[in-house]
Amino acid sequence: MNKDLIEFMEKSTSLSREEIIEIAKNIVVNRYSKKTQLLRQGEVADKCYFVLAGCIRQYKIGDDGREVTINFFTENQAAVIFKSYKQRTPSEYFLSCVEDSIVIEGDLKSEEDMYSKFPMLEKITRTMIEQNFGEEQEERASFMAAVPEERFRMLLKKRPGLINRVPQHQLASYLGITPESLSRIKKRVSKDSLFIKP
């Protein structure tokens, strides 16, 4: 039985230990190596993921052939392209492991079976998704309205560990700037107490 999953559920739910152990027996937990492609642009997403450990990048390749990083999903975040997963349409994005990752992996059929077997799990899952989605929407709106240096500072404040976990060119793409601009911003910000060094 997966220790990471048990620990996460004990911290994140009000379920009893017995219920958690029973649910854990029915949940698929997989480990993926760094650089594993979980979903490719143009494929229909048939799985959803919840990160217990590691980091998954969401990105796309534009018409000009450039990679554009949209998001990074780390511990306790769901990594799923909802439109493709729920509506069975081709995904506009890739999902790829930036680090070795441990994830809860599900599909629509297993979700339905689990919710039928454990009705409380559906409520818990929905609450977590709604909360994560609401927070992400607010953060994304602020992020998009900010200039690059403000975006970097926001990232330091909200997700400080991410700075040292992902390749700098991917981080620059996420911030909407070039790697060279990111280096200049890091130098300026490094003089402030906010900057977190490895």
From TrEMBL:
This is Crp/Fnr family transcriptional regulator. Coiled coil: none annotated. CDD domains: CAP_ED. InterPro entries: cNMP-bd_dom (IPR000595), cNMP-bd_dom_sf (IPR018490), RmlC-like_jellyroll (IPR014710). PROSITE patterns: CNMP_BINDING_3. It comes from the Bacteria. It holds the Pfam family cNMP_binding. Residues 14-77 form the Cyclic nucleotide-binding domain. Gene3D superfamilies: Jelly Rolls.
